[in-house]
Specification:
mainly alpha
Length: 162
């Protein structure tokens, strides 16, 4: 490596942070799973089994990330483009903010269009109606068939009665 001594790469600080977060999430899952009553039933596996598996899996990934960071064996991270992250995050914030104002279908259509824009499809005249139509179909499925209430707006009230 050019400009470095023979000791190799230095430890990756960001990977240490990622390892700590993975270990923290795993520990929280294990702690939370320990509070779930775990009566195994006929199969011997109760509702706490999967959170425990995922928690231990996260801890194993944290250990592997920590060792990789310490040994300097992790892949080089390419330069990141923040625009897609901002588009998806902004779409999610808009969906949450508008959910009770304009209803599920339109708010989710906005999130769909923002996500499509993050993936390179920036024509809102196409993506917004497609996303709204897909969300409207999901609203019908959840409200009409499954009887689960989602926030309805003008569109949902006109067709499904709210």
């Amino acid at each position: 490596m050019t400009g470095q001594s023979g000791t190799g790469r230095r430890p990756d600080g960001a990977a240490f942070i990622i390892a700590a977060l993975l270990a923290g999430f795993g520990a929280v899952l294990l702690w939370d799973a320990s509070t779930i009553p775990d009566r195994g039933g006929y199969a011997g596996i109760g509702p706490a089994a999967m959170p425990k598996v995922v928690g231990w899996g996260l801890i194993v990934l944290a250990a592997a990330t920590f060792l990789g960071a310490f040994r300097g064996r992790l892949a080089d991270v390419p330069r990141q483009n923040p625009v897609p992250l901002i588009l998806i995050g902004g779409g999610l914030v808009l969906q949450i903010a508008l959910l009770n104002v304009v209803g599920f279908s339109l708010a989710t259509g906005i999130l769909f269009a923002a996500t499509a824009a993050a993936f390179g499809k920036r024509n809102l005249l196409v993506t917004l109606p497609i996303g709204t139509a897909l969300a409207f179909g999901l609203y019908g499925l959840f409200d009409g068939i499954l009887r689960l209430n989602l926030p309805g707006g003008l569109l949902e009230t006109l067709i499904y009665g709210g």
